[in-house]
Write a structure and sequence with these properties.
Number of strands: 0
Helix content: 55-70%
Strand content: under 5%
């Protein structure tokens, strides 16, 4: 079967799921916010390396544009 161009999710990490189930709703939200903070920081760092002459404000605008672009992108093939 040819899977070229087919979008696939990574396999579910069962250990991670078991750990998350044990957390309270507030703790799960905290984990989600921490993950988002990491993702935004990685995007910001990459953009800083790509565009070293941009001001922090311009970098932040680029981050927001990239996040918005990702939200408009379909995860379907």
């Amino acid at each position: 079967m040819d899977t070229t161009g087919t979008y696939r999710f990574d396999p579910v990490d069962r250990v991670q799921m078991r750990l998350l189930v044990r957390l309270s709703p507030g703790q799960r939200i905290r984990v989600m916010l921490d993950a988002r903070e990491l993702a935004v920081g990685l995007i910001r760092g990459r953009l800083r390396r790509q565009y070293p002459d941009l001001s922090p404000r311009e970098i932040n605008l680029e981050v927001l544009e990239e996040i918005a672009r990702g939200e408009r992108t379909s995860s379907r093939p």
